[in-house]
Amino acid sequence: MTTGAGIDWPAWLRRWDAQQAGYVPDREARFTAMLDVLDQLLPSSFIAIDLGCGPGSISQRLLARFPAAQAIAVDTDPVMLALGQGALGTVDGRLRWVDADLASPGWTHAVGASRVDAVLSSTALHWLPAEALSRLYRDLAQLLPPGGVFLNADHLPYGPLNVSASA
Ligand SMILES: C[S@@+](CC[C@H](N)C(=O)[O-])C[C@H]1O[C@@H](n2cnc3c(N)ncnc32)[C@H](O)[C@@H]1O
């Protein structure tokens, strides 16, 4: 299928997934495990944030598996956002794309939701400096109610030398 501007966005999304699976061979199984957790812990209707969504690989799978769910996909890379929007659109109004820098204190305002049921992320949060990551965790504690779910599929190589005294 060729879509807007003659670009085959779904094909680019498939290429993205294939490329990422080269780095993370168990990527698909990991996504499935994350969604299995949501299946166990949340009601059928819920709102999830996909942090550092890239072109929306988590959101795509989540919305396909949970037809009553909604997702908010957050990233700051215009190419990733364009690719995701081109390939997935809004999934019948259930997927909202947000351009926000997770390292900025204002990212939750850009998201425009005061409460969500789940936050998912994969291979994105390791990009944040320690201070920004600490602030983000505190923000998530405000966004998630008791019983909310945060799942981060990533490797965070922070040692003692990377963590400032104020973090
Ligand atoms: C390796 S990709 C992973 C994308 C997607 N989660 C996946 O698994 O396919 C990392 C993503 O994190 C995003 N990212 C990195 N730093 C960010 C920041 N400060 N704010 C928002 N997104 C960020 C990048 O733009 C990129 O899309």
Task: Report what the structure shows.
With 167 residues, the chain is of the alpha/beta class. 41% of the residues lie in helices and 16% in strands. It contains six helices and five strands, in the order H-H-E-H-E-H-E-H-E-H-E. The protein has helices spanning 9-23, 27-41, 57-65, 78-88, 107-111, 130-143, and strands at 47-51, 70-75, 95-99, 118-122, 149-153. It has a five-stranded parallel sheet. Helix 1 (9-23) crosses helix 4 (78-88). The longest helix is centred in the N-terminal third of the chain and has 15 residues, at 9-23. It is globular, with a radius of gyration of 16 Å. The relative contact order is 0.15. The model has no long low-confidence stretch (mean pLDDT 93). S-adenosylmethionine (SAM) is lined by residues 20, 52-54, 57-58, 75-77, 80, 101-103, 122-124, 127-128.
Write the layout of secondary structure elements.
Layout: H1 9-23, H2 27-41, E1 47-51, H3 57-65, E2 70-75, H4 78-88, E3 95-99, H5 107-111, E4 118-122, H6 130-143, E5 149-153
Parallel strand pairs: 1-2, 1-4, 2-3, 4-5
The structure holds S-adenosylmethionine.
S-adenosylmethionine binds next to α3.
